[in-house]
Amino acid sequence: xxAISDGVAxxxxxxxxxxxxxxxxxxKALLLAAGEGIRTFDARRDLMRExxxxxxxxxxxxxxxxxxxxxxxxRRQIVALFVPGxxxxxxxxxxxxxxxxxxxxxxxxxxxxxxxxFERLISERPRIVQALWWHELVVTAIQREWTLNIGxxxxxxxxxxxxxxxxxxxxxxxxxxxxxIEWPLTQLDLxxxxxLTPVHVNRTLQAMRRDGLIELAGRRLTILDMAALKSTAxxxxxxxxxxxxxxxxxxxx
Length: 253
Known about the structure:
By secondary structure, the chain is an alpha+beta fold. The chain is 42% helix and 20% strand. It has helices at 6-17, 24-34, 115-124, 126-152, 155-172, 187-194, 198-210, 226-233, and strands at 38-41, 46-48, 56-62, 65-70, 76-82, 87-88, 101-104, 108-114, 180-182, 214-217, 220-223. Strands 1-8-3-6 form a four-stranded antiparallel β-sheet. Strands 2-7-4-5 form a four-stranded antiparallel β-sheet. It has a three-stranded antiparallel β-sheet with strand order 9-11-10. Strand 10 (214-217) and strand 11 form a beta hairpin.
């Protein structure tokens, strides 16, 4: 646990306590498991690759990562984004081979929890199990929303929706400053996540700036008019399920 900073520890606790209240012993057990195997990855490097034999559960401690698939000709689709506190497929070790890639967008620090440690954690800590169930339900709900984005929303609406979602997810783990968050996504990343071309992404971002909705500068996103951005995206936060018993709990209690 000594290798995990207080800020990172709070991100982990806040992520799960958005869904379920954890005891002090639960928190300690979670942080001990997370501190067993910490690895760092350079930006644009893979944590896990399609075809690998998965042996660990990756828990993002710092930085941004993504789940993605590629076609034989190199075209890529980002199908999920990971920020601090997120787990990359908690039950991935039951697979014989990875069927997707997990890659770092920024430099990433990840806790790699081995199968034995993870199974011991969930066998001894039922509240953590409940929190993980909620986590996976939310991951599935986010996937549905992303599918809806690509299938039905316009480019402008897709971008607005993604920005609001990522803001709320980072705010949940204490990583928003006012209406501003880290935004390391390149226009190519945004294209691969929204099913648009980089040229279309560029035009969409310019339009959003002109309309006074956002400001992008120095790898930070500032939302200038949150109400208007949510309205544009037709954003319904219910799929993030942030209003459960631990949602307003101070992680230091």
